[in-house]
Write a structure and sequence with these properties.
ATP-binding, 330 residues, ABC_transporter-like_ATP-bd, ATP binding, binds adenosine-5'-triphosphate, single chain, alpha/beta, seven-stranded mixed beta sheet, ABC transporter ATP-binding protein, globular
């Protein structure tokens, strides 16, 4: 059997309600449309993403693919136009003002690209980490100093405890920022381009610091970046293209027959709940696929061909055309 589908521009469908799984971050058919001067920009076009409790996931994509829009929504600073987004049990589309403040104060922690947005310049590293503890006022006073010391040690910045941000390196500032972000033990840690202002070696240290915090505290962590090397530091990397998740790279460590560990990466196309997927761009270009393609269901896979007239890539003989009954047959 074969069929033909149109390659569309991914128009957003109506919301199908929250995704039904136990993810700590659950986005289903998420849409964000910006309207400026009468022109509409669809920054998110039906994005689906689920992150399990305690997982660390990187979201990567080209400039303009919708990464920051996604993170701004997940941090509670913006509201999506449609779809569903539930983080640690909080529905981000319906939460009221008081719930939003609570959500930003204690459910999620943030690390932004600009170090100036993460740390107060006139406070030392210790004072910066202590500030959210003072505001939350949930930990007894005598335990706050110990908590600050523990966090600075965990992030390996104990040596800058008494320094202000201007007296620290970029990497030290970002590692202190991570300590600030997790001070009140949030359930979810969101990092937007946390290595955007750092060189390659320092970036690797900061990404390892995020992984270390995720491992030690179990905080569910989402890192948004355009840095493709992030996939070397996390087990799952989700690629966004045109406001939708397109592919995922899963990384695992295997032991060979000589007992040597080796890293294996596998790339998968993301299939959403209604069966949509984006073909990788290099596949589309290699076969010059456009407008519509032919599909055929085989016993254990699905084949895709160009439907362009004159294309040399024709369906195989096993892919019979679908027969549509005529009026006379009925
Ligand atoms: N406030 C806004 N008003 C209008 N358009 C916007 C707004 N914010 C984002 N956009 C548009 O939405 C699309 C996605 O932007 P977004 O910033 O999420 O991409 P990004 O992947 O984070 O890019 P970068 O890596 O360059 O930061 C872009 O086309 C952008 O121009």
């Amino acid at each position: 059997m074969s069929t033909t589908i149109e390659l569309t521009d991914g128009g957003a469908p109506a919301s199908a309600g929250p995704p039904q799984d136990g993810g700590e971050i659950r986005c289903g058919d998420l849409v964000r449309i910006f309207a400026t001067d009468g022109v509409e920009v669809q920054a998110l076009q039906g994005l689906t993403l689920s992150v399990d409790p305690g997982e660390i996931v990187a979201v990567v994509g080209a400039s303009g693919s919708g990464k920051s829009t996604l993170l701004t929504i997940l941090s509670g600073l913006d509201t999506p136009t449609g779809g569903s987004a539930v983080v640690a049990g909080t529905d981000l589309l319906t939460m009221g003002h008081a719930e939003r403040v609570r959500y930003q104060r204690s459910t999620v922690g943030f690390v932004w690209q600009q170090t100036s947005r993460n740390l107060l310049p006139y406070l030392t590293a210790s004072e910066n980490v202590r500030l959210p503890l003072e505001l939350a006022n949930t930990l007894p006073r005598r335990e706050r100093r110990r908590r600050v010391e523990e966090l600075l040690e965990l992030l390996e910045v104990g040596h800058v405890a008494g320094r202000r941000p201007g007296q620290m390196s970029g990497g030290e500032q970002q590692r202190t920022a991570i300590a600030v972000a997790v001070a009140n033990s949030p359930r979810v840690l969101l990092a937007d381009e946390p290595t955007g202002e750092l060189d390659e070696a320092t970036s690797a240290e900061v990404l390892e610091a995020l992984r270390g915090v995720n491992r030690e505290t179990g905080v569910t962590t989402l890192i948004v970046t355009h840095d493709p090397t992030v996939s070397e530091h996390v087990a799952r990397t989700v690629q966004i293209r045109d406001g939708r998740t397109s592919t995922e790279t899963l990384r695992r460590t295997e032991t060979d027959e000589h007992g040597r560990a080796r890293h294996v990466s596998e790339e998968f196309a993301v299939l959403d709940r209604v069966g949509r997927l984006q073909l990788p761009q290099d596949f589309v270009h290699a076969l010059d696929l456009r407008d519509r393609v032919r599909l055929a269901l085989e016993p254990d896979h699905v084949s895709v061909w160009s439907a362009t007239p004159g294309s040399s890539a024709e369906p195989s003989p096993v892919a019979d055309p679908v027969e549509i009954p005529t009026e006379e047959d009925r």
